[in-house]
Design goal:
The chain is of the alpha/beta class. The protein is 29% helix and 21% strand. It contains 13 helices and 18 strands. The strands form three sheets. A nine-stranded mixed sheet has the order 1-2-17-18-16-15-12-13-14, sandwiched between helices. It has a seven-stranded mixed sheet with strand order 5-4-3-6-7-8-9, covered by helices on one side. A hairpin with a 5-residue loop joins strand 3 (96-103) and strand 4 (109-114). Helix 2 (132-144) packs across helix 3 (190-200), helix 7 runs parallel beside helix 8 (357-366) and helix 12 crosses helix 13. The longest helix is centred in the N-terminal third of the chain and has 16 residues, at 60-75. The chain starts with a strand and ends in a 6-residue tail after the last helix.
Length: 516
């Protein structure tokens, strides 16, 4: 798809306040659009009631200009924004659609979206943002409830069955998942219900019952039952196939997501030799897309289910040079830095709250040459840029991508690089054993943390850096001169037990550091 980039070369001064470089605080949304500007016929009967669209009153080109000015104003202290990439057709882009079932403002049962900051349902039959097929399925589910004697859940009394409906549509595959969120696991005449629904919409490929019996604002519960199809759909993004389950994170606007991720890879400038860390990797989207252009990719993510999906995705797409670990990204970078391991490029795509100061401090300690920061909140992005630019990094370029037309949300991709030392260069003469160099070129590499993670995942056993270093030394691998010295003088160094030596050797074989 042809990309339209609004550069804004002839722009007025942005109305958005600039970020203060020294401040490190929780991000706040600033520069709210004026809801009266350009207001007229917006074509939506629930505009201002549901809170989903803040910019529906604006012409789309004016929306792009407003968003561009907002982001460029916030980033101005650190670098220049190249422009903003909008959509050719900015309607019906949401391929994940959620409908709440409950009471409207008059006490009647309805389906739609919650009124902003409440649990009052605003009835919605069709939405300018949502996939049209998904909206039609939700309407027809509502029409089937009476004939199947399915009652809508009442939050006030706790009675009723149906709480929410979630629809996920594969943009490229066309596969459709229907998730029925119920108070109890029993759906009356479930087989006939699925049959009646698929007679109206034969393109539905799977139906899942999700059970949420708690008094909570969370949509999905913990238990699931597949009542039709495989329980997931698949979609393709940037040439990679992704398996999407009811809980999986997957961008709601895949058209713009593909553009955003391609920009991130372009900014990284990979040559095929780099070690890349995908922090906050989630299901490994950016890491897997980058893998074909990198030497190796490491993903770090705290969510166990997301890591499991990332590992399965790498296996399904036959990506041998990407590995994913369930760990805190900041702790992981800290450990890698302490081991002296090198990471060339870090991708980070944090939540709206941005990166924690601990995470950014670990990033600075790791000292990658490049950082590609993908942000869904320009306020916290500006705050984090202020921190990084004070710690030896500089913003080289950035671009905004309009992932959410008609709303005030905006995605931004920024490239930072480590500033070169201004001191005089010192020449050091070294002697190289070419035979040794040739031998090492054939050997794979893995950090101590990767080896520890491998052993934990396979044996639920912890091993120390010391034990790993001892076995690496036995195998003729370089470990440094202080690897086997006690922490205090006079202390005895423990030897690695045989069972742990076997595990460590297996890990070294797995990572290609020694031959089987």
């Amino acid at each position: 798809m042809r990309q339209k980039v609004e550069t804004g070369k002839k722009r007025k001064k942005a109305a958005v306040p600039q970020a203060k470089p020294a401040a490190y605080k929780r991000g706040e949304r600033k520069g709210k659009p004026n809801p009266q500007a350009d207001e007229g016929q917006v074509g939506c009967p629930v505009y201002k009631k549901c809170g989903g669209c803040q910019l529906l009153h604006m012409d789309y080109q004016k929306q792009l200009k407003w968003k561009r000015n907002r982001v460029s104003g916030l980033l101005k202290p650190y670098g220049r924004l190249e422009g903003i990439i909008g959509m050719e057709n900015p309607e019906h882009y949401r391929h994940k659609v959620h409908a709440a079932f409950g009471k409207d403002g008059r006490g009647n049962f309805a389906s739609g979206t919650y009124k902003e900051s409440s649990h009052v349902v605003v009835p919605v039959k069709s939405c300018l943002l949502e996939n049209e097929k998904a909206d039609a399925i939700i309407r027809d589910i509502g029409g089937l409830l009476k004939s199947f004697k399915i009652k809508i859940y009442d939050e006030r009394t706790g009675f009723g069955l149906l709480r929410h409906v979630l629809i996920r549509v594969g943009y490229r595959t066309g596969q459709i998942m229907v998730v029925l969120v119920l108070r109890s696991p029993i759906l009356p005449s479930k087989n006939n219900f699925v049959k009646a629904l698929r007679e109206k919409h034969p393109e539905i490929t799977t139906v899942v019952v999700n059970v949420n019996d708690k008094v909570t604002s969370m949509v999905l519960g913990e238990k699931e039952q597949v009542i039709y199809g495989p329980g997931y759909i698949e979609d393709e993004l940037c040439g990679i196939t992704f398996k999407i389950s009811p809980r999986s994170f997957y961008q709601v606007n895949p058209i713009q997501a593909e553009i955003l991720y391609q920009k991130a890879i372009e900014y990284a400038g990979l040559s095929g030799r780099e070690t890349v860390l995908d922090a906050y990797c989630g299901t490994g989207t950016i890491g897997m897309i980058a893998a074909s252009k990198a030497g190796r990719v490491i993903g770090a993510e705290l969510n166990r289910e997301a890591v499991r999906d990332a590992i399965a995705g790498a296996r399904q797409n036959q990506i041998p040079n990407a590995r994913f670990y369930q760990t805190d990204a900041g702790d992981f970078m800290e450990a890698v830095a302490e081991e002296g391991e090198r990471v060339d490029v870090v991708f980070t795509d944090p939540p709206r709250t941005g990166c924690s100061e601990k995470f950014l401090s670990s990033l600075v300690k790791l000292r990658p040459d490049k950082v590609v920061y993908v942000s869904c909140n320009p306020e916290t992005l500006a705050r984090d840029l202020g921190f990084l630019c004070e710690k030896g990094y500089g913003m080289k370029k950035g671009i905004a991508v309009d992932m959410f037309p008609f709303t005030d949300d905006i995605e931004t991709c920024v490239l930072l690089s480590r500033k070169k030392s201004s001191g005089k260069s010192t020449k050091i003469e070294i002697e190289i054993d070419l035979d040794e160099a040739d031998r090492r070129e054939c050997i794979g590499t893995a950090t101590y943390q990767e080896i520890k993670n491998y052993i934990w995942e396979h044996y639920q056993t912890k091993v120390s850096h010391l034990y790993i270093a001892q076995i690496k030394k036995k195998c003729g691998l370089d470990v440094g001169e202080n690897f086997n010295k006690p922490k205090t003088e006079g202390n005895k160094v423990p030897n690695c037990p045989p069972e742990k030596e076997r595990m460590i050797r297996e890990a070294l074989e797995y990572f290609g550091m020694i031959k089987r």
